[in-house]
Amino acid sequence: MTIPWIKMRHDLDTDPAVILLCHEAEVSTETAIGILWRLWTWADKHSTDGFLPGVTGEWLAQFLRNDCAPVALERAGWLRIDSDGLRIPNFNVHNCESAKKRAEKAKRIEKTRDDGGRFTVTKKGHRNTSHGDHKSALDKRRGDKRREDKKLSICASSDLFSQFWELYPRKVGKRRAEVAWRAAIKDTPAAEIIAAVTIFAKSPKARSEFVPHPTTFLNQGRWLDDPKDWQDGQPTPEERKPRLDPDLERNLKLGRIRKCSNHELDQDGYCKNCGASQGLIDQIQQEIDGREQATDDKGAAPALEGGARSVEGDDAE
Questions:
Q1: Structural domains for the chain
Q2: pTM over 0.90
Q3: What are the CA-CA distances from residue 65 to residues 12, 34, 54, 59, 263 (Å)?
């Protein structure tokens, strides 16, 4: 058998409406709460929607054993006295069956959380083991932890990259360097890279003309180079390769750009396929369009000359 019950807040004694009830009815706080309890339990037993037809304020005063209680309750907002009966404001929120069901459900959920998701509480108060609920709670906690760890990892990576950037002697292409940094620290501890960069930044190589871009340094794993090679400031075997004539190098680069059929730009404005910038792509396209226009003009000139000769021939006849 289910025992009837009503909802009453823990902080009801400090509610301003209760304080007003105490003042109007000239009773203590404990007595005021007793008046409310008697009113609500009676209404809960005899009403489903908070309306009590035919009941007068005089009868309620006798029932609550306080002549000032009905008027005080009405002024405090706990009661409304009409000609056809009494009404309890917000009855559906606190005292109806659906409100009680919501309260019981909230209590079961809170109990389940307190037990770490290992138990559920039935309406009769029994605790049932639920492997599914336990697994769901564990998965949620693990997911929250992974997201938190990821945020911390990103923040830590950004801070460590800032250290790397401050140390590295050649500061170009910061965005690309940060992408290369994140890829590098997946296989190598960030502290190891920063330690190597600290040595590199103090070496003669860092003050020479052969300082690689930071992106190159990271992508090629140059922190693994022998620090002795940094002391003479001379180029590495890779850097000693003969450079192409600037015009030839430009022509080769332009040929590669022209062959690129899909210029897909990255966030820095460079083509992911051929490496050309947006400005260079536009410049080459204008050059190609200019050449095509010049070719068309040359093809049209002989046709005009032939037409002119034909006209002259007709006149001669």
A1: 12-95 (1.10.10), 148-230 (no CATH)
A2: no
A3: 21, 11, 19, 10, 88
